[in-house]
Design a protein that fits this description.
Structural class: mainly alpha
Bound molecules: tryptophanyl-5'AMP
Helix content: 55-70%
Order of helices and strands: EHEHHEHHHHHEHEHHHHHH
CATH superfamily of the largest domain: HUPs
CATH class of the largest domain: Alpha Beta
Number of strands: 5
Largest sheet: 3 strands, parallel
Radius of gyration: 21 Å
Number of helices: 15
Distance between the termini: 28 Å
C-alpha cells in the first residue's frame, strides 16, 4: 500500500496541519510505503520571495521531522526535486475539463481574498493530481479542505485511463472524522490565510498571549458554561489527557471557573503536548546538514518511483 501526502511551505506549520494531516500521516508510516513531500511548486502561487520560500521549506522539513516523521520508514522530499511531476501535470491537463477546475472552491476563495488570478492558481488541482498519481498512491491522508482536490484527482485519473488505458492507479482520500477541520482561535477553520493559527512551534510568550486573547462571551465566572460550544474546549480536547478533559468539562458545567482559568489550562496542555517535539526540533536545528541529507535521499527514492510511472504514462499517450 502506498500512502502519500503533501504540505505547502507557505508559513509556519500550525495545530490544524498537525492534527488534520501530520499526525495521521506519521501513524500511517508504519502501515505501508509512505511518501511525504513539501509542496514548493504549489506554494509559488502565493509565496513570491525566493528567500522566504527557501526558509519555509527548511522550516517545514525540520518541523515535520521533529513531529515524528521517520525518514527511514517514509520517503520525505521536496516536490521540485522531482520535476517529472510538472510534466505529468501538463499531460493530465490535456484530459482535464475546464468545468472541473471552475468548480473548485479553493481557487474561488483565494481570488476572492485578493490573490492574483493566475493560471497556476487555477491549475493547482491538476498539479496536485500529478503529485498523487505519479507515485501510484493508494491512500492520501488530508484534512477536509483538500477533499474536493482529491475528488478532482480521481476524476482526472479516470479520464486519463478512459482515453489511454489502465495506466493510473485511482487513489482514495483518507479523512479521519476527528480533526478533519481543526478550528482556529476565532472558531473558523484554522488557516494561515485567516490569521487565526496556533503554531506548533510558536514562541512561548507569543503563544500564551494568543491563547489568552481568544474571544469569549460575557458569562460570569460563577455561572455554568456550555463545553460543547467553546473554542477553548475544542482546542483543549486535542492536547489534554482524558482525565484533564473530563475535569474541565465538569468545571464548565458546574460554574465557578472563568474563561481566563480555562485559557491558562489550555496553554499549559498545549505547551506540554508539543514538548518532546520541541526538544527533537532543537537537535535537528543544531545539525542542518542532516535535514538536507534526508531530503536529498528522499528525492532520489521519489525520482526512481516517479520514473517508472512516467515511462508507462509517456508510452500510453504516444510521446515515447
Ligand atoms: P496545506 O499545506 O494547506 O495543508 C497541509 C495539510 O493540513 C491540513 N489542514 C487541516 N486539517 C484540519 N484542520 C485544519 N484547520 C487544517 N488546515 C490544514 C490540510 O487539509 C492538508 O492535508 N494542496 C495541499 C498540499 C498538496 C497535497 C498534494 C496534499 C499538494 N499536493 C498531494 C495531498 C496530496 C495543501 O495546500 O495543503
Amino acid at each position: 500500500m502506498r500512502i502519500l501526502s503533501g504540505i505547502q511551505p507557505s508559513g509556519r506549520l500550525h495545530v490544524g496541519n498537525y492534527f488534520g494531516m501530520m499526525d495521521p500521516a506519521i501513524h500511517l508510516q508504519d502501515d505501508g510505503e509512505a511518501f511525504y513531500f513539501i509542496a514548493d511548486y504549489h506554494s509559488l502561487t502565493t509565496v513570491h520571495s525566493p528567500e522566504e520560500l527557501r526558509e519555509n521549506v527548511h522550516n517545514v522539513a525540520v518541523d515535520f521531522l521533529a513531529c515524528g516523521l521517520d525518514p527511514i520508514k517514509a520517503t520525505f522530499f521536496r516536490q521540485s526535486d522531482v520535476p517529472a511531476v510538472a510534466e505529468l501535470s501538463w499531460l493530465l491537463s490535456t484530459v482535464t475539463p475546464m468545468g472541473l477546475l471552475e468548480r473548485c472552491h479553493s481557487y474561488k476563495d483565494k481570488t476572492a481574498r485578493g490573490h492574483e488570478a493566475t493560471h497556476g492558481l487555477f491549475a493547482y488541482p491538476v498539479l496536485m493530481a500529478a503529485d498523487i498519481l505519479i507515485y501510484d498512491s493508494d491512500i492520501v491522508p488530508v484534512g477536509e479542505d483538500q477533499k474536493q482536490h482529491l475528488e478532482v484527482t480521481r476524476d482526472i485519473a479516470l479520464k486519463f485511463n478512459n482515453r489511454f488505458g489502465e495506466v493510473l492507479v485511482i487513489p482514495k482520500p483518507k479523512i479521519r472524522e476527528v480533526n478533519a477541520k481543526v478550528p482556529g482561535l476565532d472558531g473558523k477553520k484554522m488557516s494561515k490565510s485567516y490569521g487565526n493559527t496556533l503554531e506548533i512551534f510558536g514562541d512561548e510568550k507569543a503563544t500564551r498571549k494568543k491563547i489568552m486573547s481568544i474571544v469569549t462571551d460575557s458569562t460570569p465566572v460563577e455561572a455554568p458554561k456550555d463545553p460543547a460550544d467553546s473554542i477553548i474546549m475544542d482546542l483543549y480536547r486535542l492536547v489534554a489527557s482524558d482525565a484533564e478533559i473530563a475535569t474541565m468539562e465538569n468545571d464548565f458545567k458546574t460554574g465557578g471557573c472563568g474563561y481566563g482559568d480555562f485559557k491558562k489550562r489550555l496553554f499549559s496542555a498545549y505547551w506540554e503536548f508539543f514538548k518532546p517535539m520541541r526538544e527533537r526540533r532543537e537537535e535537528l536545528l543544531a545539525d542542518p546538514g542532516q535535514v538536507d541529507k534526508i531530503l536529498r535521499q528522499g528525492a532520489s527514492r521519489a525520482r526512481e518511483t516517479a520514473a517508472k510511472t512516467m515511462e508507462r504514462v509517456r508510452k500510453a499517450c504516444g510521446i515515447q
